[in-house]
Amino acid sequence: MQTNSLSGLKAEWFGNTRADLLAGLVVALALIPEAIAFSIIAGVDPKIGLYASFSIAVITAIAGGRPGMISAATAATAVLMVTLVRDHGLEYLLAATVLAGLLQIVAGFLKLGTVMRFVSRSVMTGFVNALAILIFMAQLPELTGVSWLTYVMVAAGLAIIYLFPRITTAVPSPLVTIVVLTLLTLALGLDVRTVGDMGALPDTLPVFLIPDIPLNFETLQIIFPVSAAVAAVGLLESLMTAQIVDDLTDTPSDKNRECVGQGIANTATGFIGGMAGCAMIGQSMINVKSGGRGRLSCFAAGVFLLFLIVVLGDLVAQIPMPALVAIMIMVSIGTFSWSSIADLRQHPTSSSIVMLATVATTVFTHNLAIGVLTGVLLSGVFFAGKIAQIFRVRSELSEDGLNRTYYIEGQLFFASADEFTKSFDFGEVLERVTIDVSGAHIWDISSVSALDMVILKFRRDGAEVKIVGMNEASETIVDKLAVHDKPGALDKLMEH
User: Fold this and answer.
1) What's CA 446's distance to the chain center, in Å?
2) Distances (CA, A) of 88 to 43, 91, 92, 93, 367
3) Residue 257 CA from chain centroid, whole number
4) Is-contact 96 227, C-beta < 8 A?
5) Of 161, 288, 406, 436, which is the most buried if we count CB atoms within 10 A?
6) For each of the chain's 496 residues, which pLDDT tens digit applies?
7) Max Cα-Cα span within the chain
8) How far apart are alpha carbons 276 and 284 in whole angstroms?
9) Beta-carbon neighbour count of residue 260 at 10 Å?
10) Structure pTM?
């Protein structure tokens, strides 16, 4: 899939043209109320989010590393901008967006996209489940304090979404839902909330502008923390979403190219009056489930979005919110990994704890980065604990009782260093001690310090100590960090 050849580019762009265009239209319609809602979250005019969604979708379709993934203005980045907009205004937000994009470009060139290797399957499952819950929770304002008619329309929308594919899959059922419910609303004059009630739609094209801010160190101090947070959260959500789309479509993606693509998109968006964004798991799921696979789907979503709000704004404003709520509920149901509930009994307890902690933290904080970070840290702790358990020390005493050989087996690092030290009998009177590490690997400064301590304690009691069987990697770190052969090392131990 990822190739620079002409045939590869043609396949990425035009290998699924009809389905990509239809899926792009569905995504564009679903993007409008979300972009408006995210603008409101950030405290800016609706056009800021709408212009951003157009720009980011089009640019990531061209420069990104994951065909078929939808990027636009998102809640994850919008919540990080609230304080900046409130305290300093829109111009600083635009500058922060440009800087966030530049930081993401740097991250791509530094190949930080490879950090996805350290995200476990349990964290990925927790991330997906948390997103499904957050997507559903985001629909609750549209389902509370409303008339019974809203519930009927949402139910009708869900019925069309799930039943229409049994008749035909030629047209995406979410698109049919939007058309049917909009026509019903207009024909019967139904009193329900519409997209137009969310905020005014812009009627002009975006224009190039440079953020009107003073170019000094004080400005950098103001925008850099926000830009760094936006860049980190945006890349994290984008890379996680790319991995999910990889799994859904059984195709690979270029994570480092995606970092650069997201950065170019955000930098350019800041110069046309848009806010920062990233990949959207919900919209990407809509796209994939509607048949979108290639770059054309994301490009079409951006172009259709701009066309809909600028040219057909009056019609789009008539779309009933229950139709879009039904689509997002469908996305929520489809996103949630229902098998993970049954897997709680079968999977190791540590894996289940990681998954549940990721879900709970993400839902509680409404911050995907904090949730994923919690899951990754827990995964690391559990992994270290498991590796530390696969460690043992045995010993053999020579026939004359003066020489003892200790055999070290397993991984020697911070979590097993204490057990390593306790495995030696420093009260035994010996002439010679041999420490055989041919079955072990020394990883960090904690393990090197433990080795120093053992050697120096035996030498303090008059025993000759010899280390044998050290592999090349272990020898390198020991030669660099160890102090047991340095002058005065024994005296320092005696001082303690």
Assistant:
1) 31
2) 12, 8, 6, 8, 23
3) 15
4) yes
5) 161
6) 444 578 878 888 988 999 999 999 989 988 887 888 788 778 788 889 999 999 999 999 999 999 999 999 987 788 788 889 989 989 999 999 999 999 999 999 998 877 767 778 888 889 888 878 887 887 888 888 888 999 999 999 999 999 998 998 777 788 888 889 999 999 999 989 888 887 777 878 888 899 989 989 999 999 999 999 899 888 988 988 898 899 888 898 999 999 999 999 999 999 999 999 999 988 898 899 889 999 999 999 999 999 988 888 888 888 898 988 888 888 788 878 898 998 888 888 999 999 999 999 988 987 777 888 899 899 989 988 888 787 899 999 998 888 999 999 999 988 888 889 999 998 888 899 999 999 999 999 999 989 988 999 998 888 999 999 999 999 999 999 888 778 776 666 555 5
7) 102
8) 18
9) 21
10) 0.72
The residue length of the chain stands at 496
The rounded distance, in Å, linking the Cα atoms of 236 and 75 is: 14
C-alpha 61/C-alpha 12 separation (Å) is 10
What does the alpha-carbon distance between residue 493 and residue 34 come to, in Å, rounded to a whole number? 64
Beta carbons of 305 and 52 less than 8 angstroms apart: no
